Amino acid sequence: MQNYLSNYSRSIQIGLHPSQAPHQHPKLPHSFSKRHPPPRLLRSHAAVGDLEAVLRTWEEYTSVEKRVCAESYNVVMRVYAELGKDCEAVRVFYRMVEEGALPNCRTYTVMIEHMVKCGKLEAAMEVFKVLPFMRVKRSLRQYEVLVEACVGAKQFEGVKALLVEMRVDGILPGRAMRLSLERMREAGFVEESDDFLKEMLPNEGIKSIGYCDDCRDDDDDDDNDDDDDGIQM
Hints:
mainly alpha
């Protein structure tokens, strides 16, 4: 695990020691309940872009609970990454591992998105490739982020390799993926992309397609998945 921590920090060009933790924030006199658990509150605050509320809820939660659920770390890590606060995002991941929380599918989705955003596509691909060996499920969202990045970088062979892996994993492309493949087709990579689309997209005779969230891990910590949708078989 330490190798992945180092790789993550190096990939966004920062050097952090695991002992470094996020800055402390004042706590709010807020009581949690089963109806409004911390992960749900964190997601709600993050959805409206209220970073201060996310951090205050997070600090109170971690001050009163010995075991913090993985999804809470994921939400805070993603908020920092989306705001370009790279150091803080990596520190949350260090803290997650140090405090004994088990990184899950969405944790690595956030990490991959962050690396791609920082222009570290190769490092993101390395993390993605080792997930099966770590018994971590690879998700449609991860494929979408990497395919979009490869298309943008005109690495069409990389797209083809991802599509092969996606088929092996039994995942069908969602709406975002189809947009990326359309861009690839427009760039002249026609024959290969058409072949994969014919094999991976549902039959045209199917008039109704249900969509589900990115990855449904069997994590008790997760209330609802909040990544992009995929085709439900």
